[in-house]
């Protein structure tokens, strides 16, 4: 087995009035939130997909299908814990993750330290540099720019235990 594995993840959810917005395990106050079977945390979902992809274990929809009531409104931090366990069973640990959230609004820069700390807490990671989170607008282009949805991209490096 390779001593390192790289994975990429992407997730998107529609935004709507009256829904909550969870990102990186943190509740973000905004007039819109994600429409989803789970809590709709695109950041965590992209991270999970990147980790699963790195060890060739498909995606979170395969492991936690939206057709199952077991995952209805589930906290995505629970899914992340389970994915981390699946990755560990394959003999790997997270080296680092680089995540970008694309959203016109809300502005996320002030929430990034809290989100990164929450992910490190959930994953029991001491290294403050292991989780990088960035936010970008799309200059009012596309579904993110029109505030119809939000997306996240994640790249991870997994290392052999």
Automatic annotation (TrEMBL):
Residues binding 4-CDP-2-C-methyl-D-erythritol 2-phosphate: 11-13, 37-38, 59-61, 136-139, 143, 146
Residue span, 2-C-methyl-D-erythritol 2,4-cyclodiphosphate synthase domain: 4-158
Keyword Metal-binding belongs to the record: yes
E.C. code: 4.6.1.12
Gene3D superfamilies, per database record: 2-C-methyl-D-erythritol 2,4-cyclodiphosphate synthase
Signal peptide boundaries: none
Sequence positions that bind a divalent metal cation: 11, 13, 45
Subunit structure: Homotrimer.
Family: Belongs to the IspF family.
HAMAP family linked to this entry: IspF
Protein known as: 2-C-methyl-D-erythritol 2,4-cyclodiphosphate synthase
Species whose genome carries this gene: Sunxiuqinia elliptica
Taxonomy of the source species: Bacteria, Pseudomonadati, Bacteroidota, Bacteroidia, Marinilabiliales
